[in-house]
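Q: Could you predict the 3D structure of Hemoglobin?
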Amino acid sequence: MNSFDSLYEQIGGAKKVRELVEAFYARVQAHPLLKPIFPEDIQPVMEKQYLFLTQFLGGPPLYTEKHGHPMLRARHLPFPITPSRANAWLECMHQALDEAGITGEARDQIWARVVMAAHHMINQPED
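A: Sure. Here are the predicted structure tokens for Hemoglobin:
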């Protein structure tokens, strides 16, 4: 790897993104704050997250090709995302990054980006 490789390439491409998504949603489905805002059938959500993270990390623009511009905040407005839920989401992602074995500078860069995204999604104060 060199410093010009995308984060997607640095972490191992499609296989590693899939691994991260699977580790993440196992935690989301078990989390008492997050489970209620996700559908019972999590597979379509997992597939969208896979497409999104691939693109978000500098891989092929799979999400845009299939669903158009991500418009993250707008697409999440129907869901009550409080600061506690954003933090729970981040907790699940942190653990998923651990499980997927994503480390080093690439992990630090991914973490900085997901922290910004999670805080940007907050659309309601605490209940």
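Q: Anything worth pointing out?
A: The helical segments are 7-11, 13-30, 43-56, 62-67, 72-76, 83-99, 104-121.
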